[in-house]
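Consider the following input, taken from an annotated entry for 1-aminocyclopropane-1-carboxylate synthase (Artemisia annua).
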Amino acid sequence: MLSTKATCNSHGQDSSYFLGWQAYEKNPYDPISNPKGIIQMGLAENQLSFDLLESWLWSNPDSAGFSAQNQSLFRELALFQDYHGLPAFKNALVDFMSEIRDNKVTFDPNNLVLTAGATSANETLMFCLAGPGDAILLPTPYYPGFDRDLKWRTEAEIVPIHCSSSNGFRITEWALEEAYEQAQKLNLKVKGVLVTNPSNPLGTSLSLHELDLLVSFISSKNIHLISDEIYSGTVFSSPGFISIMEVLKNKDLINTDVGKRVHIVYSLSKDLGLPGFRIGAIYSNDKVVVSAATKMSSFGLISSQTQYLLSQILSDKKFTKNYLSENRRRLKQRHEMLENALQKNGIKSLKSNAGLFSWVDMRGLLSSQTFEGEMELWKKIVYEVGLNISPGSSCHCSEPGWFRVCFANMSKETLDLAMQRLSLFVDSMPKTKDQIHRLKSLKKDLRKTKSLPKWVFTLSFTTTRSGMESM
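Applying the prediction step yields:
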C-alpha cells in the first residue's frame, strides 16, 4: 500500500560507496575504545581548520549568541523568515564566492537561491531542467551520490561521459559527442551537462581548454551546463581554479542565451567544513530558473540562525582571507602526507591539485584486471585492513582498480595509522611478476626524483601544465 517512490530501488543505497559507510558505522575506529576498528577514508569532509572557526567564535561571542549592541536577536531570528533568505547572508555569500575566485568575477545576490546543502541545490536544478525521459550527461568518474541526487525523485537519467586514465581523465570532444549519441540511442532527450569543478573524485580542477569545450558543446546542442563548484576553495596548488563564470565573462556571454543556460552550484560544506550547517546555493542568470528554484527551496530552507551566524563570519574579510590561505596550506600538507605514504608502498595516484581526497591507482594490487578483482580487493581493504575507501566502480569509472581515498577528515595520527595498516597489507600480498615489476619501477622512479635538482621540477611542471592546457 506504499507509493512507487517508497518501494523503488533507484536511490543507490546499495552502492559499494554506501555499503562501505555501513561497514564503518558498525565498527568505527576509535583510538581508545576500538583501536582495531575501521578507519573512515570514504568521507569527503574537511576537519583540518575547525580551530580557525572556533577561534573566531570565541572572539565574537555576540554573533554566536545572536545578539548585537547588547540586544538579543533571538526572537527576530526565531520567527518566520521569507524563503528568499536573509539579504545580509546572501550578500556575504556572493562576496565570499568572488573572493575564492580572486575577485575576477562578481555575483548578483538576486540571482542566488539558498538551499539546504549542495544535495538539495543539484536536485532542485534538475527539477527545473529535466524530468522523465530526459537525461543529463556526466563525466566519469563521478560522485556516487549523484545517482541519488539527480535521478531518484526527478526520474531523469544520467548518461556517462566516459573519460580515460590515458589523458588523466580529462573531458574530450569525442567523449562528449559519444555520450550525446548514446543518449539519443536510448531515446532520451539531453537537457544538459553537469561537471564538478574541481572534480570529485579526481581532485583536479578543469582546464581552460575543457571549460571552453563545454561552453562550445552546450552552445551547439542548445542545452544547459551545471557547474558544481563546491570544492572551489580547496585548490591548494597549481594550476589554479577557473570558474565557469570567468569563462563566460571573458567571452562576453553572461547576459546571452548561452550564459542563461549555465548554472553554478555551491556550498560551504567543503570549503569551510560545515556540512552539518546545510548551506548550499544555486546561482543562475536565468530569471525563470531562479524564480522556480526559489519556490522549490521552501522544501529545504537554511535556518535563520545559521544564515545570521554565517553572514557575520563571511563579512569578516580579514578572517576569510586568512582562513582560505591557511586551509589551502593545510590541505596541501595533508595531501602530500598521503601521497608520500602511498608511494613508499609502490602505489601511484593521479596528479591532483584540489579536494579532500586522492584518486589512487591500485591496479597493480588486483588479482585480475576486472571489476570483480576490484571488488575483491575493496572487501579485503575494508574488512581485513580496516580502511573504508571508495572503489572506482561506485564512481562509475570505466577502468577497474582506481579508488578514492579521503585524507582531510581525520587527524595526522589516524592517517599515519591507516598508512601503516595499508603497508602491512601490501607487504603481505603474494606478488605476481607484473606487480613486482611495477613496484620496482616505481621505487626506481622515486630514487631518481629525489636526486634531481629543483630546476628540473620547475621545467617539468611548466611543460606538463602547458601540455594539459592544450588537450
